[in-house]
Design goal:
- By secondary structure, this protein is mainly alpha-helical.
- It has 2 domains: 354 residues, no CATH class; 86 residues, no CATH class.
- It is built from 20 helices and no strands.
């Protein structure tokens, strides 16, 4: 296949991916109401487009209060803000804008597959699988940052391979900057500077150590420079230090608790039972009592003031967001200390759940109902995941045998594993790996196809 045919083919696959995503969003226009994190992205983007920069969108809408917020990193929100400013700010417009990110990811993954296996066909098959993979196209309808994260993760992998092929200071800077943009889409990607950029620089065996160290340093420097404006901005506007986002406290709270439903008496905590290794909104209830049990009277009263609860409710609407997070973190840390003997088992189950190796049928239920991703959509995504997984593993083996670097794939797998271990097991956190699975599976399928064709030709009778 010529390069020209590759680009034409990739363009057609990308166009088909976009058409399907747009059609699905329009078809499912009334399927799920706007809520949760999706409403945060939607409303904060509208606020930014109207000159209210990174404020709490809920406090502003319900109470008219302008308070700073860093609930999520900024890249996806800024993208939606730009769409709002120049195109429109409706919920449907934002969902359709996300389909462009999904289609862009398909295109980029095709290019990654072409480089990873040095095969035009591998790139096209990988792009085709990515276009059809429900775990990816569901994101665009959901109005969640995974759409942006999948695209930026694919770009980061492509930039890493560009650096590997051309290990100079310019591409080291490019690799670090691309990883930082991915981190500004989902904060956990920041670890890739340490587990991808630095090792990739140090593993350049044909380069002197001085140059390897310099390239690793430059990649981290570029990443730091790209993230610095956001981090610096956050450090100036909260009562407590905030770096990438304010989410860790609430995550610790909802993923670590022994909550029992006061009405049914059913255990709904996260250490065993139905929600083991997952999260439950019930873990954010009855916070004042839990603080009384966890801390001294003086400390408990201080944390209660920091919660800023609406009278008679569990909603922390008043006060500084970073201050709320201190109280939430205190509750989560107390639970961790109380159940420290259970942590190894819990971490193992979180990781297994995230990889669909534990209760995958329940994950379909949770993704479909609690996450709002749809039951049949989640079931299809799970079937496709298990179908591609063995071929993706084969793809890694083939790359290793051909002495192609596989670290970018392994680094993303490690990053999502660490994220699940530290938080909770949810398949949505697997988004960048779900994006890379089609790349690896595509390369393996092309190799198998060539093997089958070669075998059949070997059986054909020779011409006289």
């Amino acid at each position: 296949m010529t390069n020209r045919r590759f680009w034409i083919g990739l363009g057609l696959i990308t166009a088909a991916a976009l058409a399907w995503r747009v059609g699905y969003v329009i078809w499912a226009i009334d399927r799920i109401p706007l809520g949760g994190d999706a409403s945060y992205y939607h409303y904060q983007a509208s606020d930014i487009a109207n000159g209210r920069w990174f404020i709490d969108p809920f406090q502003y809408r319900y109470w008219g209060r302008i308070t700073p917020s860093a609930g999520h990193p900024p890249v996806y929100i800024m993208y939606l803000a730009g769409v709002t400013k120049f195109i429109g700010g409706s919920e449907l417009t934002h969902r359709l804008a996300s389909t462009l990110l999904g289609a862009g990811a398909v295109f980029t993954l095709g290019v990654v597959g072409r480089r990873a296996f040095r095969s035009n066909w591998a790139g096209l098959v990988g792009a085709g699988l990515a276009a059809a993979y429900a775990a990816l196209w569901i994101n665009d309808e959901m109005l969640m940052s995974e759409s942006m994260y999948v695209l930026t993760a694919a770009i980061a992998v492509l930039c890493a391979y560009t650096f590997w092929d051309n290990p100079n200071w310019k591409f080291a800077l490019l690799m670090g900057a691309a990883i930082a943009i991915a981190a500004l889409s989902r904060a956990e990607a920041a670890i890739l500077l340490l587990i991808l950029a630095v090792p990739f620089a140090l593993l350049q065996r044909d380069q002197p150590w001085k140059k390897r160290l310099l390239n690793g340093f430059l990649a981290c420097l570029a990443g730091g420079v790209v993230m610095a404006p956001w981090i610096g901005y956050n450090l100036t506007r909260f009562d407590h230090p905030v770096m990438m986002s304010n989410g860790i406290g609430s995550v610790l709270m909802v993923s670590n608790c022994d909550y029992v439903d006061p009405v049914t008496g059913e255990y709904q905590g996260t250490y065993h039972g139905k929600f083991v290794a997952y999260w439950n909104v019930g873990c954010s209830f009855d916070l004042e009592r839990r603080l009384d049990e966890a801390y001294s009277t003086e400390e408990a009263e201080r944390f209660k003031r920091e919660l800023g609860l609406l009278p008679g409710t569990q909603f922390a609407f008043f006060g500084d967001e970073a201050t709320h997070e201190q109280a939430w973190r205190a509750i989560g840390m107390h639970e961790l200390k109380t159940h420290k003997k259970n942590i190894p088992r819990l971490v193992t189950l979180r990781v297994a759940r995230m990889w669909d190796l534990y209760r995958f049928d329940q994950n379909i239920e949770f993704n479909g109902a609690l996450e709002g991703r749809g039951i049949w959509q989640s079931r299809l995504a799970t079937l496709q995941y298990f179908a591609m997984l063995p071929f993706a593993i084969l793809g890694l083996v083939l790359m290793k045998l051909r002495k192609e670097p596989i670290l970018p794939f392994l680094a993303f797998a490690l990053s999502v594993t660490i994220t699940a271990a530290m938080t909770f097991g949810i398949t949505r956190y697997r988004a960048p790996v779900d994006a890379l699975l089609p790349v690896l599976a595509g390369g393996a399928l092309v190799w198998l196809g060539k093997m089958i064709v070669g075998y059949r030709r070997s059986l054909a009778p020779a011409n006289d």
